[in-house]
Design a protein that fits this description.
heterotetramer; A mainly alpha (about 450); B alpha+beta (about 180); C alpha/beta (about 1000); D mainly alpha (about 170); A: about 450 residues; mainly alpha; Formate dehydrogenase/DMSO reductase fold; 17 helices; about 75% helix; globular; B: about 180 residues; alpha+beta; Alpha-Beta Plaits; four-stranded antiparallel sheet; 4 strands
Chain lengths: ~450, ~180, ~1000, ~170
């Protein structure tokens, strides 16, 4: 079988079985290098975890936190990861509803990224809590005090939104994956066969199963669409609902959603480009897919530029001196370099995507996507830490710099995300053969016509 | 009923398979089951028509779940607020606008969960034993149509299937109490 | 539990039901209950008892009430009966508790071994050693024993003198570097008497202080703050509403300059010359009082050397300003000139101004029966030091916190002399620099643990009783002295058994003098109950000595040095004795807002000349540039704090830091200025060099610029008189609707509704409220690192903003106001809390439930006033500081938010008392710790639903409905948070 | 695939249910301890039950203070004899570990409240709440054991019934 898999797609018009082989090669057992990589990610996770335990034990004393930056890197990471999650749902749900064909190659990857990004994001409100052992007080549960959370608090909205989002995303990912797992089950042996047998729930692709599958998949997509818009709006309301200058703004919901899709699509690019090379998925995740994705990045980048302009314009137009002072500090204050670096990453670098060659050259796309990731992280950092630093009372202004703890936990979150993602990619179908086969003619077209056919290495 | 025979036919494309279903439907043979590796639109439509079904009942599960979620969110938010009557920031005890977020989220959550449960329920999953006539290629690149018919009807069915473009037809003794439904 | 705790104290402590040291969690506080064997009639566990006693933190002699819970003192408050404190005490007084419970107090007697190490010895051995050495010294000859201590009140000082006499010595010094000698010398020169005048600031219309920082450390700050607040409160004058006019002549602004109308930045040491120039103008303008009975020509001749032009040249004060000061002093109906510092000439000039403008006997009076001088004259102390260094003394006893090694001028060579003494005995609480060289160290009781009395002025006799059992195995200093004296070979009989006996007999004598007809027991009990015997002393008429105008004063030579170093007593550390109290280190010094360090104030102009970072660019922290300052007595290094609140060319540094011993909180911070300042002066010409190295001094304060926001508001007296609202510089105010649109019906508060009013005009920024809050509410102290990270835990802070150049014309010298939780009706912090930890109570309080808090910190993000504090670190109270904790207030663990509660524990207790006694709460029954502590009476707390309450009256008096036309405002109204704390605007005179 | 699922799905369900039970019935360290032994065999039944001594005769601070107070040893002596300094004669057996002074009795606490609960006995006594409502029928017990778990729900139930304050801040500050 190995030989057959390695051959993969060799023709200009791949057959269904070739698609299967190619995809199954991707999640065939990994080699030493793969496990070293997973181990490396696990090490980063352990580092972050150790720092978290250290922080719980020794309190926030070992962080850079202090008055007035009550929120800083942790909430930045939270918003960053939640934002990352959004592009997955966009690609899998919204584009599904619109029957957009280029989603087929990358939607599973994006969805997987969504689930693990939400799972990573969900850790940060906990990491950030002063008394994490009491986090369950945010959840309504029967207790002798009859005391429940305050549903007025945007943080409770957040909890509901994020947990709903995680649940729906997991169900959406898993439901959509059942036929692919069943497909994999048929060729797998040993442990993997048991695993796929359990996870496929005995799927055989009968007409009855497909009929209910199509309906539930459609409805989940229909639910996920408003959900994806609501979740980041709710996250943005964590800020917009307050009275803090720099946060208190009505444009936050669309602005955050656009930013989320921007950063998410960029991270899909960041993940897909090395993956398609390492896992020999070039013919399933084609340049065509990447091109389409990078157009979304370009579009959202321009939307972000517009949002920054609008945000600043609104502040200038209202003439509120407190807001003006905050924005003045944001642009020209002691930490203004964060803002200008963000503008460079989010507004200037993505303009390269106007050039078709950049959109079809993976190395360029990779570089741009890395810049966008950095820029979008900085954007949240500037909004959160910067606005808190320059608050209503000038005597309480103080700028924030992270300590080793926050940096290690941030690195650990990337390790945690990449570890989960890598394990998933090697054990579960990271590309959806079902959908690729459904849209085989578009794939053939992509392979054959739109871009010069390149043989899998 | 005489000895029942399963005819396991294999099709290369979804169009062929759909044609087979339509032909069986036209011949009033309804005791068949289809297997396909991906949800091809023409196939789904053909199968639905052949079985005389509307759309999947999973819809109702989702609707019920969504409504339950919405209503329980109303009960949860307002009920728990009235328990303590706490004043936060001068707002009324039960302030509806912020609760709408909770209602929306629970609606989605309950709707989604009950939809997936409905999917499992109506698909009779988990399936512990393979359906008769299932071939592993039906999950990869081939479309399968398993027709159960009496011995005397085998040749008619075969010809219908071949006419629709079946690549290969195998015969198999049907399980005794196989009742094909949906 | 420290070994030093006596068993009895231990029992009392163990009997407390809920020891307050547990953190919010599920662990029960204590597992054992140990009841008394025989109950103490005066102690009901869980109910505080109160004892009147004396504060001993400075020489002002304030009476205090100590609050005792289960046998330990947990709070000090001013004694309302005491005519000096009148119910308030300063931050230093509040922090006296941390002197009692200081973890660095000496627990047991120690003697120094030949190798320099210290070894614990028993009290018996220690006393034997002491007595043997004393006896040997007494045998060797007369005056071979010296005693250097701080004055502890008339009776105890008498014990020290008697003890010295028992060993044949008269070398007794009651030493304080900051002393009254210049004032006494000036009084002697002017009026022929050496007692101190009593000032009545509230009876003046104009006050000019020539170097007397009377709101910080000079004289009796609590009393002066109260009188000054009264003097500055708007009242009806002949031309409508008016306030007293105040000016402060000094090289640095300080709080006194901040609260005055005019800060006259004079060159260091020229305050006396400025005063003389003012006198010159008064005389030449013919403003001398008719009844002064002095020839104007004589005054002109006397002040001839001080013509305004030349003084202006020397002092750097414009002639116009001199004229203005003269006009205020000469023309006001009741004026007062004060003098401070160590220059007797300044005092003479000020006394002369007061006398010649007819204000002696009015705003400055001498009372009959003035107490004896408490401190020894510096030259006599110097003589004792010379005797010690010449080897004429065998045993030196340094006692009672005088710390001569730290405070004496370096040119006296006191440190070397005292440390070189054959046998140096140190008696005190926390081993200080003097103890570092002592051969025998004896732990003594804290003043709150021992009997004392005081006589701060005529008619005021304070009685200090011990308010708790000693914390350590210490003994009362004067008991040790008495027992030692009884041992003396001289064979004299000592009249007293111990210090308590001495006090009792002294008060029997006093009764004979004050109330001969009264029952002795009644008099004693009354004194114990009220904290002393207080009488109105008669005013003595004084006349100016004839020859004073014939003794010309010499003008101070103009300093040729480019830079002058000025030492000023730190408002909290005074002469250095406060530096071992963590509260005082943690509370920011009001004008510089710097904590846990020494610094040197540098004007931006000077900074530019030296090439330092400018004032704007260093607003994130105190400063980092280290200056090397070369004085005649050596070089010192201090970090520059660039601030416009000091005269250009002047480097002002606080006195009080720079300890090399004196406990963990004091040691190794800043520089001991006393070492570098010459005797009799607090200014010294220096040269300055900027060093390469950097050292960060930290402040919890961000920007010093208020940026035109409505935080600390001010209006001019003219606006107030005319009934105008202040001219608004801010744009947004015009748009802010007067009544905001409300989406929901407002909540009803049918019972009580607590509120507060803070008079910014009265507030001097003395930070007594901050210290009181630390004491009452168990606020943890973080230390320099935590403050630098923005983790200061104070629930109430003194906000200080410097008016920008543009604002200066229409602003007070400094914006100062206390800011605590505003208890908003529309509290932005409440709806964002996910778990209801922050919510509103039915009595209108913004509650923070610590045990419910999970630490999302969302509330602080949404608080416009930034008054919430998060427990970033595990709070620590090294034993026995934890004994000070208030058992009625939860000690917060790490990870929870906390903030001002309006002292809910006091509200709850009073409500329970009223309810169980079946009566209504009385206005004034509940008073928050900050309002109680405020010497200026700037804070009023009360029930907003009670139309007769003091707070409603104060609000009405100052709102637009009354003749005063509206000083009321709320902070940051644009956020529509509806704060229940309202402020009354600060006032200033429009600059002509 | 069939057998595996038939085994694994019930196992997963069992783990879930078992976990829920473990959480629900695990030991709660904050619950009052019924096993508190006292240093002397003092009997509330004899004192409060048989001899009908009112509670506040010994626990005298309850009406004036936050704490009800444990009676001083002198109070015992008041009834039991006057030979305090010679040592109280034990009723049944030696009542301290040593016969030597000090005479203080180191009682073990039965009822504990965390520090963040500021319970005050005084208003409850004045409101006419019987001691037994919280402490149970102490007059029938030889050794006091807690009857109720004194948690917030317990307090609230009574406060609700009596219309007492439900302001969180009154107890938690």
């Amino acid at each position: 079988m190995a030989a057959a898999v390695e051959s993969g797609i060799t023709t200009e018009s791949p057959t269904l079985i070739e698609v299967d082989r190619q995809a199954q090669f991707a999640f065939s057992p990994g080699g030493v290098k793969y496990w070293l990589w997973v181990l490396f990610c696990a090490g980063l996770t352990a580092l972050g975890g150790a720092y978290w335990l250290h922080q719980i034990y020794y309190t926030f004393n070992i962080t850079g936190y202090g008055q007035p930056t009550m929120w800083a890197v942790y909430i930045t990471n939270f918003v960053f990861w939640v934002g990352i999650a959004h592009s997955g749902t966009l690609i899998s749900a919204i584009l599904y509803l619109f029957r957009v064909r280029w989603r087929t190659g990358i939607f599973r990857l994006a969805e997987t990224m969504t689930v693990f990004a939400v799972a990573t994001a969900g850790l940060f409100p906990l990491i950030h809590l002063g008394r994490v052992w009491n986090f369950y007080w945010l959840v309504p549960y029967p207790n002798e005090r009859s005391l429940q959370p305050d549903f007025r608090s945007p943080l409770v909205w957040d909890l509901f939104a994020i947990s709903t989002y995680l649940t729906i995303s997991v169900m959406f990912l898993f439901t959509g994956m059942i036929p692919d797992i069943a497909n994999a089950r048929e060729k797998a042996t040993g442990f993997r066969r048991i695993l796929y047998s359990i996870l496929s729930f005995g799927w055989q692709g009968t007409d009855r199963q497909w009929r209910n599958f199509s309906m539930v998949y459609l409805l989940l997509a229909a639910f996920a669409t408003p959900l994806v818009l609501s979740v980041h709006s709710v996250v943005s309301w964590d800020f917009a609902m307050t009275q803090l200058p720099g946060w208190h703004s009505t444009i936050f919901a669309p602005y955050f959603v656009a930013g989320a899709i921007f950063s998410g699509c960029a991270l899909v690019l960041t993940l897909a480009i090395p993956m398609r090379r390492l896992m020999k998925l070039e013919n399933l995740i084609t340049i065509w897919h990447l091109d389409c994705l990078s157009k979304i990045v370009l579009l959202t980048s321009v939307v972000m530029t517009y949002s920054y302009a609008t945000e600043s314009f609104m502040v200038w137009y209202t003439g509120d001196p407190i807001e003006l002072a905050t924005f003045h500090e944001r642009y020209f204050g002691p930490q203004g370099y964060w803002f200008w670096l963000m503008i460079f990453c989010n507004c200037v670098v993505p303009l390269l995507l106007f050039i078709p060659t950049v959109r079809t050259t993976t190395i360029w796309l990779f570089i741009v996507s890395i810049f966008v990731n950095i820029g979008m992280w900085l954007e949240r950092f500037v909004i959160i830490s910067g606005s808190l630093s320059t608050n209503q009372d000038p005597s309480q202004w103080k700028f924030y710099m992270p300590f080793a703890t926050e940096i290690a936990i941030t690195i650990g979150s990337f390790g945690w995300f990449l570890m989960n993602f890598s394990l998933f990619a090697k054990f579960l179908p990271i590309v959806s053969t079902t959908e690729l086969k459904d849209g085989i003619k578009y794939l053939r077209q992509a392979v054959r016509e739109v871009y010069p056919y390149r043989r899998a290495a | 009923m005489s000895e029942a025979i399963s005819l396991i036919s294999t099709f290369a494309t979804d169009e062929d398979c759909a044609r087979g279903i339509e032909a069986l439907h036209a011949a009033h043979i309804h005791n068949f089951r289809a297997f396909y590796p991906y949800p091809s639109e023409p196939l789904l439509e053909a199968a639905n028509e052949a079985r005389g079904l509307g759309r999947s009942p999973v819809r109702w599960w989702v609707l019920t779940g969504g409504l339950t979620g919405f209503l329980s969110a109303i009960a949860l938010t307002i009920g728990t607020s009235l328990e303590w009557n706490l004043n936060t920031g001068g707002r009324p005890v039960a302030s509806i606008p912020p609760y709408v977020v909770i209602m929306f989220e629970l609606m989605i959550l309950f709707g989604g969960i009950s939809g997936v449960i409905g999917f499992f329920f109506h698909s009779r999953m988990p399936v512990f034993d393979p359906e008769p006539g299932y071939r592993s290629r039906f999950n990869a690149d081939k479309f399968g149509l398993v027709v159960q018919c009496a011995e005397n009807e085998v040749s008619r069915c075969e010809s219908i299937l071949r006419g629709a473009g079946a690549e290969d037809i195998q015969r198999e003794a049907a399980p005794a109490a196989a009742a094909h439904g949906h | 539990m420290s070994d030093g705790l006596s068993r009895r104290t231990f029992l009392k402590l163990a009997a407390t039901a809920g020891a307050a040291t547990a953190i919010p969690g599920c662990e029960p506080a204590a597992r054992k209950i140990v009841p008394y064997v025989i109950p103490d009639e005066n102690i009901i566990p869980g109910v505080p008892s109160y004892y009147a006693t004396l504060c001993n933190e400075c020489d002002a002699g304030c009476g205090v009430i100590a609050k005792i819970r289960e046998g330990r003192v947990i709070k000090l408050e001013g004694n309302p009966n005491d005519p000096i404190s009148q119910g308030a005490i300063c931050a230093r007084g509040q922090a006296a508790l941390q002197g009692v419970y200081n973890p660095d107090r000496l627990g047991k007697p120690k003697r120094r071994l030949p190798d320099g190490t210290l070894r614990e010895i028993s009290w018996e051995d220690a006393l034997k050693l002491l007595n043997d050495r004393l006896a040997a010294a007494a045998k060797a000859g007369k005056d071979r024993v010296a005693f250097i201590g701080a004055s502890q009140g008339p009776t105890l000082d008498k014990i020290a003198v008697t003890w010295a006499q028992a060993y044949g010595s008269s070398r007794v010094a009651f030493w304080a570097r900051i002393n009254d000698e210049p004032a006494r010398a000036a009084a002697d020169a002017c009026f022929g008497r050496r007692d101190l005048p009593v000032y009545r600031l509230n009876q003046a219309q104009a006050i000019v202080s020539f170097g007397a920082d009377f709101l910080e450390t000079w004289g009796s700050p609590v009393e002066q703050t109260r009188q000054f607040a009264e003097f500055r409160t708007p009242r009806d004058g002949t031309n409508g509403v008016t306030i007293g006019k105040a000016a402060y002549v000094s090289p640095r602004m300080g709080l006194t300059g901040a609260k005055s109308d005019l800060w006259v930045a004079a060159n260091p040491g020229t305050e006396g010359d400025v005063a003389m120039a003012v006198l010159n103008i008064i005389a030449s303008q013919g403003w001398l009082a008719k009844n002064a009975a002095v020839d104007a020509e004589a005054v002109k001749k006397f002040t001839a050397a001080f013509d305004p032009a030349s003084v202006s040249q020397r002092s750097g004060v414009a002639v116009d300003q001199l004229n203005q000061l003269a006009a205020w002093l000469g023309q006001a109906d009741g004026a007062l000139a004060l003098a401070g510092g160590d220059d007797p000439q300044a005092y003479i000039a000020a006394y002369l101004i007061n006398a010649l403008t007819g204000n002696v006997g009015r705003t400055m009076v001498f009372l009959e029966g003035a107490p004896a001088e408490a401190t020894t004259r510096p030259e006599e102390v110097h003589a004792i030091i010379r005797a010690i260094s010449s080897g004429a003394v065998d045993v030196v006893v340094a006692a009672g916190g005088a710390n001569p090694v730290f405070t004496m001028p370096s040119e006296w060579g006191a440190a070397a002399a005292i440390k070189g003494a054959p046998f140096l005995v140190w008696m005190g609480e926390v081993p200080d620099e003097t103890a570092a060289g002592a051969h025998l160290l004896l732990p003594t009781h804290h003043p709150l643990e021992s009997w004392r009395d005081s006589a701060p002025r005529a008619g005021v006799y304070g009685l200090g009783q011990p308010v708790m059992q000693p914390v350590f195995a210490s003994r009362p200093l004067h008991d040790v002295l008495i027992s030692s004296a009884q041992n003396a070979a001289a064979g004299q009989t000592i009249a007293w058994e111990n210090a308590q006996d001495a006090i009792t007999s002294a008060w029997q004598d006093l009764q004979g003098k004050l109330a001969p007809s009264a029952n002795a027991t009644d008099f004693w009990n009354q004194a114990l109950r009220t904290g002393g015997a207080f009488q109105e002393a008669a005013v003595t008429a004084v006349t100016l000595k004839g020859d004073v105008l014939n003794t010309p004063l010499a003008p101070r030579a103009e300093s040729r040095s480019q830079f002058t170093l000025v030492g000023f007593p730190h408002i909290f550390f005074y002469d250095g004795r406060g530096a071992n109290k963590p509260w005082l280190q943690e509370i920011p010094e009001p004008t510089n807002q710097i904590v846990w360090d020494g610094w040197v104030e540098v004007h931006p102009e000077t900074a530019a000349r030296l090439g330092l970072q400018t004032y704007e660019s260093t607003y994130l922290y105190g400063g980092i540039n280290v200056l090397e300052i070369a004085t005649p007595s050596g070089r010192l290094e201090l970090t520059a704090n660039v601030t416009p609140l000091v005269k250009p060319g002047v480097l002002a540094a606080p006195i009080g830091q720079g300890h090399t011993a004196y406990g963990r909180y004091a040691k190794g911070r800043g520089v001991n200025l006393w070492e570098y300042l010459p005797a009799g002066s607090r200014a010294v010409p220096v040269t300055v060099r900027v060093l390469e190295k950097q050292y960060k001094i930290v402040t919890p304060l961000g920007k010093s610029d208020m940026m035109g926001r409505s935080i600390v508001e001010a209006m001019s007296v003219e606006e107030l008189a005319a009934g105008r609202q202040p001219e608004i510089v801010r744009e947004e105010e015009a748009d802010t609707p007067k009544t905001a649109y409300e989406m929901y019906d407002p909540w009803k508060y049918p019972g009580h509704k607590w509120g507060m009013t803070v008079d910014v005009q009265a507030c001097t920024g003395c930070s007594a409220c901050v210290a009181a809050c630390y004491a009452e509410n168990n606020l943890p102290v973080g230390g320099k690192f935590e403050v630098d990270r923005g983790r200061i835990m104070s629930w109430i802070r003194i906000e200080r903003f410097i008016p920008t150049a543009a604002e200066a014309a229409k602003a007070p010298n400094l914006y100062i106001a206390p800011i605590m939780c505003q208890q908003c009706d529309h509290a932005p912090c409440e709806p964002v809390c996910p778990v209801f930890a922050s919510h509103h109570t039915p009595e209108g309080l913004n509650a923070q439930i610590y045990n419910r808090c999970v630490g999302t910190r969302f509330c602080e993000n949404n608080c416009p006033y930034k008054v919430r504090r998060f427990n970033w670190f595990q709070a620590e109270w090294p034993e026995p500081l934890n004994l000070q904790l208030n058992p009625d207030v939860t000690v917060r663990g790490p990870g929870v938010m906390e903030k001002c509660t309006f002292c809910i524990q006091r509200i709850t207790t009073a409500e329970i008392d009223a309810r169980t006694a079946n009566r209504q709460l009385v206005d004034g029954e509940i008073i928050t710790a900050c309002a109680q502590a405020c010497p200026a009476r700037a804070i009023t707390f009360g029930d907003l639903n009670d139309p007769n309450s003091a707070i409603i009256k104060r609000r009405l008096e100052n709102s637009a409905r009354s003749h005063n036309q509206g000083r009321t405002y709320t902070m940051l109204p644009e956020f529509n948070a509806l704060p229940q704390v309202t402020y009354l605007r600060s006032l200033y005179w429009e600059k002509a | 695939m069939g057998t595996t699922n038939r085994i694994l799905i019930p196992i997963a369900l069992l783990i879930f249910i078992g976990g829920a039970f473990t959480v629900a019935f695990s030991e709660r360290p904050w619950a009052p301890r019924a096993d508190v032994e006292q240093p002397i065999p003092f009997s509330h039944r004899v004192h409060a039950g048989i001899n009908k001594i009112p509670c506040q005769y010994c626990h005298e601070y309850a009406r004036v203070s936050a704490t009800s107070g444990v009676p001083p040893v002198a109070r015992c002596v008041g009834c039991h004899g006057s030979s305090l300094l010679g040592g109280i004669e034990p009723i049944t057996q030696p009542w301290t570990d040593t016969h030597q002074p000090p005479f203080e009795i180191r009682w073990n606490r039965v009822y504990t409240l965390p520090d963040f609960v500021k319970f005050v006995h005084k208003p409850h006594i004045w409101a006419g709440v019987a001691c037994q409502e919280c402490h149970g029928p102490v007059e029938t017990m030889d050794r006091v054991v807690p009857v109720h778990e004194i948690n917030m729900g317990f307090c609230l139930k009574c406060h609700e019934q009596r219309g007492a304050t439900q302001d969180c801040f009154v107890c938690h500050h």
